[in-house]
Amino acid sequence: MLLTLSVLALAAQPLPRVEALPPPAFEDAEVLAAAQAIFAPLETGDGPALLKLVYPDGRVTASGTLPSGFSGTRSRSWADYAARMKLGAGFVERISNPVVEVDGDVAMVWAPFTITEGGKVLSCGIDHFDMVRESGVWKVMNITFSSRVTGCPGQ
């Protein structure tokens, strides 16, 4: 009887929370580095350099309000986007607190971003990178992002 009561008392206790183990850190780091690599050519307006890091037939999709004043949803191929880039763009985009998920040769990065120019915050939102690994190299297939020009950190 005492054993039964002890077992029942233990069974009534909540179990500790269990979380899945994260994927290997080296794989996350490779994916994240490939996603972040596109910022340099975006910031300098170097279309040819950008196309080396992405799948040209992939897409850039924005939803929300952009610093240019455009509001709504707009989507272009990377090739079209790169052709419209202007050298010396001058903005700086940084992500924070990225979440990286990897399954074989497919991955995604989800992260808040802030875009600044001359130290002034222009916009912010969430970047979603759709990544594919081919021949051992991670590239950005698509990037979809939300954007707003008010309510950003640092404004």
How would you describe this protein?
Residues 50-141 form the SnoaL-like domain. InterPro entries: NTF2-like_dom_sf, SnoaL-like. This is SnoaL-like protein. The protein is an alpha+beta fold and 155 residues long. The protein has one domain: Nuclear Transport Factor 2, Chain: A, CATH 3.10.450. 27% of the residues lie in helices and 39% in strands. Strands 1, 2, 3, 4, 5, 6 and 7 form a 7-stranded mixed sheet that branches.
In short:
The chain contains five helices and seven strands; from the N terminus they run H-H-H-H-E-E-H-E-E-E-E-E. It is α+β, with helices and mostly antiparallel strands.
Beta fraction: 35-45%
Domain count: the total is: 1
Which class of secondary structure composition applies to the elements? alpha+beta
How far from one another are the termini? 66 Å
CATH level-two architecture: Roll
Element layout with pairings:
Layout: H1 2-12, H2 25-37, H3 39-44, H4 47-51, E1 59-65, E2 71-77, H5 78-84, E3 92-95, E4 99-103, E5 106-117, E6 120-134, E7 137-147
Parallel strand pairs: 1-7
Antiparallel strand pairs: 1-2, 3-5, 4-5, 5-6, 6-7
Can you give keywords for this protein?
155 residues; alpha+beta; seven-stranded mixed β-sheet; disordered N terminus; SnoaL-like; NTF2-like_dom_sf
